[in-house]
Design a protein that fits this description.
Layout: E1 3-8, H1 16-24, E2 29-32, E3 41-45, E4 48-52, E5 65-68, E6 73-74, H2 76-88, E7 97-99, E8 103-104, H3 107-120, H4 132-140, H5 153-174, H6 182-190, H7 193-196, E9 200-201, H8 203-212, E10 217-220, H9 245-251, E11 258-266, E12 269-271, H10 284-292, E13 305-307, E14 309-310, H11 311-321, E15 325-329, E16 339-348, E17 351-353, H12 360-364, E18 367-374, H13 391-404, E19 407-412, E20 420-422
Parallel strand pairs: 1-10, 1-11, 2-5, 2-10, 5-7, 6-8, 7-9, 11-15, 14-16, 15-19
Antiparallel strand pairs: 3-4, 12-13, 16-17, 16-18, 19-20
């Protein structure tokens, strides 16, 4: 079992951190391959809750080497804030390794992200304002700053000057903001150099060697399938490839190394930010899911939009990622409902779509076609075997599994680390 990938199979916030932590005790390396601090993982260990934004959640497991690979964009201030916070709570963070080729988020990326969103008005994408998109844009435009540049002041200054040449014109003349000073950016980035240096390496080679040695490597995706820049609900997406294919380019590992693709889905659906969401509930049921499920962003605190489970989205994710196993999280949130609808198809202008429409306009206007399932009232948070679940909860899981395109191998029944039912081995 050399390499496995964990990806979100909806719009994010499905509980990838918990799933990663569930199997981290059986692996040697946990790798973040895309995104930045624009998403969060919440992991509960005993009575302790950990909110991670940039760091791979495997950093919480003793003996695991956490890796931030080349596909990630790194805000160094956030990185060291997270490391310091974990250190004060007794977590050993010395094992962290960071790719020399990862790109760096700077002050001007954060500033441009925020002013651009405000400038868009009603056409806002709903970004977190963390500078993620502008940093990836600089990467593609070949004017980005990489981790390795911080160690050479001459190269760093050249690159910052080149990047700010145009950006300061935009900030001053278009957005009516003050110009950003090159010296300030260089000084801030250089201030991290000494502390950063021991963590930086060729992570592609590190992981390649680990796989040769028979170590088990888990690749942990940020965001989710429906936010992928190529395969998500464009333009309401993130700026990186958050699908399983992104693990190959984002970590420098050949695609033939991946033998297990684990997709994470909630027992219902949530979304943060703008964009189409067919099963969204603007009623007491949506508010109930938000309240009981504590659906507020780990990174931003924004209330998440909530809706019923969307089977066509799950099937789409299974196909795009090549998902071998689903982990169904937050089944306990549905406890107490008399009836639980599941979206089985869409209706667009009188036409039924059993799969996700390829046309953006069709998906925007899609209305869910529901099949209803009886609910249950028994507390399921103590269930550890599938047979421990009430009959209606078992029937719900089996129905969702049948609609979703891959087997459901684990079921989350509560926020605690051990509140999970394992039906099939994830790493066999």
């Amino acid at each position: 079992m050399p390499a496995a990938v964990i990806v979100g199979a909806q719009w994010g916030d499905e509980g990838k951190g918990k799933a990663t932590d569930l199997i981290a005790s059986r692996i040697d390396y946990v790798v973040k391959f895309n995104g930045g601090n624009n998403a969060g993982h919440t992991v509960v260990i005993g009575n302790e809750k950990y909110a991670l934004h940039l760091l791979p959640s495997g950093i919480l497991t003793e003996g695991v080497t956490p890796v931030i690979s080349n596909g990630v964009v790194v805000d160094l201030e956030v990185l060291f804030e997270e490391l310091d916070a974990l250190t004060t709570r007794g977590i050993d963070v010395s094992r962290l390794r960071i790719s020399a080729n990862a790109h760096v988020i700077t002050e001007y990326h954060r500033t441009l992200d925020k002013v651009t969103e405000r400038f868009l008005g009603k056409r806002q994408i709903g970004t977190t304002g963390r500078g993620i998109g502008p940093t990836y844009a600089d990467k593609i435009n070949r004017v980005g700053i990489r981790i390795q540049d911080i160690f050479d002041e001459g190269i760093l200054r050249q690159k910052v000057e080149g990047a700010l040449d145009l950006k300061n014109h935009l900030l001053v003349k278009i957005y009516n903001r003050r110009a950003i000073v090159v010296d300030d950016i260089v000084a801030e980035l250089r201030s991290y150099a000494d502390r950063l240096r021991p963590m930086v390496c060729d992570t592609s080679m590190l992981l390649h060697q680990a796989l040769i040695e028979g170590k088990t490597v888990l690749f942990e995706g940020g965001q989710a399938t429906m936010l992928d820049v190529d395969h998500g609900t464009y333009p309401f997406v993130t700026s990186s490839n958050s699908t399983a294919g992104g693990a190959s380019t984002g970590a420098g590992i050949g695609p033939n190394q991946f033998t297990r693709i684990i997709g994470i889905v909630k027992a219902y659906t949530t979304r943060v930010g703008s964009g189409p969401f067919p099963t969204e509930l603007d009623d007491q049921f949506g508010e109930r899911l938000r309240s009981v499920g504590a659906e507020f962003g780990t990174t931003t605190g924004r209330p998440r939009r909530c809706g019923w489970y969307d089977a066509p989205i799950a099937r789409y994710s299974a196909r795009i990622n090549g998902i071998t196993d689903f982990v169904l999280t937050k089944l306990d949130v549905l406890t107490g409902l008399d009836e639980i609808p599941v979206c089985v198809a869409y209706e667009v202008d009188g036409v039924r779509f059993d799969e996700m429409p390829v046309n953006q306009s069709d998906f925007h206007h899609a209305k869910p076609i529901y099949e209803n399932f009886p609910g249950w009232r028994d507390d399921i948070s103590g269930a550890r075997q599938f047979s421990d679940l009430p009959a209606n909860a078992q029937a719900y899981v089996l129905a969702v599994e049948n609609m979703s395109g891959a087997r459901i191998s684990a079921i989350g029944v509560g926020p605690a680390r051990d509140a999970i039912i394992q039906r099939h081995e994830l790493l066999d």
